[in-house]
Design a protein that fits this description.
677 residues, alpha/beta, Rossmann fold, 3 domains, 50% helix, membrane
Length: 677
């Protein structure tokens, strides 16, 4: 069996490590001989390699740290070897000349340790128990973060220690200690300056509010804002899209919405919104919501931290999921932990009943999918010379089922078949998690992208029609939705920058988004295939320009049915087509494609000639089953469901208040928060 060749990245890491080790070895030899040219060359190579590590190979730094050879050890060793070389050069009894310089060098390293200790203390004072966005938190004495150089020990030691190292190195050729003295003095001055800057940050009037002061402020904000409904979300960085798809429906609700997060990094992952955002990392802080006016929490996903918030008895909890499909994840047994489960239409209700996972039918509420209210309906066959096909496969999932994604077994065949038709414009939008579990999916995704790029190189496409307009719209949308942070800004500084939004910003963002989408699609070269991986344009925007969707068994096809346009599903499960349709009801109105993509030409023909489309009626029926009726709108039904569950929460609180009032020594009814109507 052939031994696999190491990857280029691994080879580069190994090369850098060897170069740095060789430089230190050469410096040691030069110091002991002593050999001034070798000493200078080895030291310069060592410093240059350190700089390259911090610029391009951060992973190697962590390996050195695990081996107890971090930046401090390496820097001390480098300077020690220079001192040894200077002591061995020239006359004997040179200790009296260089002793003060060695002492100064030691003082510099003591300063480095002191700065690091103060940096940790400053970071702790700036780690608040509550992180906010879209809320005026100026009362917490928020301030810009200290310079990033003072917070990163590796960078700081390289910069602050460079004058001392350079001075010692410059002293070697001519045996001139004055250079070493000047370099060490400059390093000491830099260290003292950094120490002073951090000490000022620890003064009582210069640091942010303490933990109890922040918690008191948070309680006061809750009492003043009086939230009624919230979106609760916890997850990894790549899962933020699950929360972002619910921002617009949440903003369209009556009452006062709030977004509750658990991870600090997630605050910046939430897309542009005017809804107040609070991040409560600690369970003890999260429990303060029990004494607020918050009545309902909406959950778009399950996570380990969901169980923590479910312990709050004064809040009703509902699971809305981040998409519905025939996969087992769409009827997870965890759903029975919520007070209600909100689904799009009758099909999901039936799915829970058949799954027998403990979710009672009385707790299932059909609300539609409010995100889809902006999806345009079918308007007939392609109007121009091109048929726009959206290929949006899902990811490989956690269970290893080969039918989860078509990317591995069928993706390249599907794309080749589509690219072979000169009348097709392909939009390829892979799932953000593609390749995160199965490397084969990631590799297939890369090959698909290269196929599309190669096809574009061969296709003579006209130039963009209005690139200037897109640039203008992009600048305007970025201005409204992007916060400008200094390099190295921490959470406290971001809280300061992302204060309460200006009135009318949400409406301005909606207008700017619509203008951007129109300009984006108009700017594309006619007929050019597109690989779409950025947050913009959204999946629903792609729906509106596509004539046909090809996907897998996922929520994508359920959402696409809002348009009633033709769609196809790749069958990579290994099941016969009849069994495949029976196992996955969302495929009933789809054209089923085999992994070899042999059915693509016929599929394109039905899109271009609607009279041959035999599935139009089936799509309309399936849409009704999956998404519910068109009237009232999904947003209205969503709002009604929130209003009803809020009413149940208020009634529950009233009953609890009555019971508490009747029990001596318990909280009185006056202590139970009265929820706003």
């Amino acid at each position: 069996m052939p031994v696999p060749l190491p990857r280029p990245q691994a080879l580069l890491k190994g090369l850098v490590t060897v170069v740095l080790a060789a430089a230190f070895a050469a410096q040691a030899v030069a110091a002991l001989l002593p050999d001034v040219p070798l000493l200078i060359a080895a030291t310069v190579v060592s410093l240059a390699t350190e700089g390259a590590l911090y610029r391009w190979q951060r992973g190697v730094l962590s390996l050195f740290a695990k081996s107890h050879a971090d930046i401090t050890v390496r820097h001390v060793l480098r300077d020690l070897l220079l001192v040894v070389a200077l002591l061995r050069l020239g006359e004997q009894d040179r200790e009296t000349v260089y002793a003060p310089l060695v002492a100064g060098l030691l003082v510099f390293y003591v300063l480095h340790c002191a700065i690091q200790a103060l940096s940790v203390l400053v970071r702790r004072t700036r780690t608040l128990p509550v992180v906010t966005r879209n809320i005026d938190a100026s009362a917490l004495r928020l301030s810009p973060a200290p310079p990033v150089l003072l917070r990163r020990p590796g960078h700081r030691l390289l910069v602050f220690g460079l004058p001392a190292t350079a001075g010692l190195l410059a002293s070697a050729p001519g045996d001139r200690p004055v250079y070493a003295a000047a370099g060490i003095a400059l390093s000491l001055a830099l260290g003292l300056t950094g120490l002073g800057v951090l000490l000022l940050r620890l003064l009582p009037g210069r640091r942010p509010a303490g933990e109890q002061e922040v918690l008191d402020w948070f309680d006061a904000w809750l009492a003043a804002y009086r939230p009624t409904v919230g979106l609760y979300f916890s997850g990894g960085a790549a899962s933020a899209y699950q929360a972002n798809m619910w921002l617009e429906p949440l903003a369209g609700l009556e009452g006062r919405p709030v977004i509750v997060l658990r991870e600090r990094f997630m605050v910046q992952k939430i897309a542009a919104t005017d809804i107040p955002i609070v991040c409560l990392p600690k369970v003890s802080t999260l429990m303060r919501l029990e004494h607020s006016t918050l009545q309902v929490l909406i959950h778009p996903s399950n996570s380990g931290k969901t169980s923590q918030v479910l312990r709050i008895p004064t809040i009703k909890h509902t699971f809305v999921n981040h998409g519905e499909s025939d996969k087992l994840s769409s009827c997870n047994p965890y759903a029975k932990a919520y007070d209600e489960v909100w689904v799009a239409g009758p099909a999901a209700r039936e799915r829970y009943a058949l799954a027998e996972v403990g979710v009672e039918d009385k707790d299932v509420v059909e609300t539609g999918r409010p995100q889809l209210d902006g999806v345009l309906p079918y308007a007939g066959p392609p109007a121009g010379a091109r048929t726009t096909v959206l290929y949006a496969p899902t990811w490989e999932g956690w269970d290893g089922n080969p039918g989860n994604t078509s990317v591995i077994a069928a993706g390249e065949n599907l794309v080749r078949a589509l690219l072979a038709d000169p009348g097709v414009r392909l939009l390829y939008k892979p799932h953000p998690l593609t390749g995160s579990v199965d490397p084969r999916a990631g590799a297939a995704d890369l090959r698909i992208r290269e196929l599309i790029r190669a096809a574009n190189r061969e296709r003579a496409a006209t130039g963009p029609s209005d690139g200037a307009e897109l640039a203008r719209c992009t600048a305007e949308l970025d201005r409204l939705t992007t916060s400008a942070f200094r390099a190295g800004a921490d959470t406290v500084e971001r809280m300061l920058v992302q204060s309460a939004p200006e009135p009318g910003r949400a409406a301005a963002v909606a207008r700017a988004t619509a203008a951007w989408e129109e300009a984006y699609w108009a700017s594309l070269p006619e007929g050019e295939h597109q690989i779409i991986t950025d947050a913009r344009p959204t999946l629903y925007s792609c729906f509106n320009v596509a004539d046909l969707l090809i996907s897998d068994v996922s929520s994508v096809i359920s959402d696409f049915l809002a348009s009633e346009k033709p769609y196809a599903v790749a069958n990579t499960s290994g099941l016969p087509e009849d069994a495949f349709r029976t196992a996955f009801p969302t495929v009933v109105a789809a054209t089923v494609l085999t992994p070899d993509a042999s059915g693509v030409p016929g599929l394109l023909e039905t899109v271009r000639r609607p009279e041959s489309d035999e599935l139009a009626e089936a799509r309309a029926e399936l849409k009704l089953r999956l998404l519910g009726p068109a009237e009232p709108s999904s947003q209205e039904r969503f709002n009604d469901a929130v209003r009803a569950l809020c009413g149940e929460a208020r009634d529950h609180r009233a009953r609890v208040a009555e019971r508490l009032a009747a029990v001596p020594g318990q909280r009185t009814a006056a202590e139970v928060p009265t929820a706003p109507r």
